[in-house]
Amino acid sequence: MIRSKLRTLLLGGGSAAVMLATALAPATASASPAPHATATAAGFWSCTVPPGYTFSSTTNTLNCGGSGFRTYYFVQPPSDGLWACTMSDGFTYSSTQNTLDCSTGGGFRTKYLLRTPTTGLWACTVPSGFTYTSTQNSLDCSTSGGFRTKYLLRAF
User: Fold this and answer.
1) Among candidates 100, 122, 120, which has minimal Cα distance to 109?
2) Are residues 104 and 72 in contact, defined by beta-carbon separation less than 8 angstroms?
3) Which residues neighbour 57 within 8 Å (Cβ) at sequence distance 6 or greater?
């Protein structure tokens, strides 16, 4: 009975470790887009990031010309609530994460939770046309570690 429970725990822990390792492993380079690379109404894979767009993920590909692998971007129009690799005009952000999703040359990069500025939003920047009525120290806005100021926005 005890061995059976121990075996079950060990197998469950081993499975969890394998799933975690798989989730954390960087995307491998490929000659074609990743399996999730199908175009959607909100985005598509591209060799460049067109003006007015942002990107939310990258992979390596041989599809973009030249010799060797190139960065392939999943580009999308910026929108409220999108986790994006770059900031976009007309938006602020309310949170960040350190991720490999945005890597264009290896290593971790900052990803931003885009938000449409509005009165009452706690944001990491104060966009044009807004002031703030309160602040707080937060790790939400960190782009390099440590606490940063978060602002309670008010339109003027």
Assistant:
1) 100
2) no
3) 73, 74, 85, 101, 102
Residues pairing with 99 in the sheet: 109
pLDDT tens digits, 6-40? 344 444 444 444 343 434 344 434 344 443 444 45
pLDDT of 59-82, one tens digit each? 999 989 888 899 999 999 999 999
d(CA 103, CA 8): 38
Angle at 144 between CA 138 and CA 146, to 5 degrees: 35
What secondary structure letter does DSSP report for 8? Answer: H
Report whether pLDDT(94) > 50: yes
Residues 6+ apart with CB under 8 A from 136: 122, 149, 150, 152
Helices (H), 26-155: none
Q: Which residues contact 85 (CB under 8 A, 6 or more apart)?
A: 54, 55, 56, 57, 58, 101, 102, 109, 110, 111, 112
Question: Tens digit of pLDDT for each residue in 101-130?
Answer: 998 888 899 999 999 999 999 999 999 999
Q: How far apart are CA 149 and CA 65, in angstroms?
A: 43
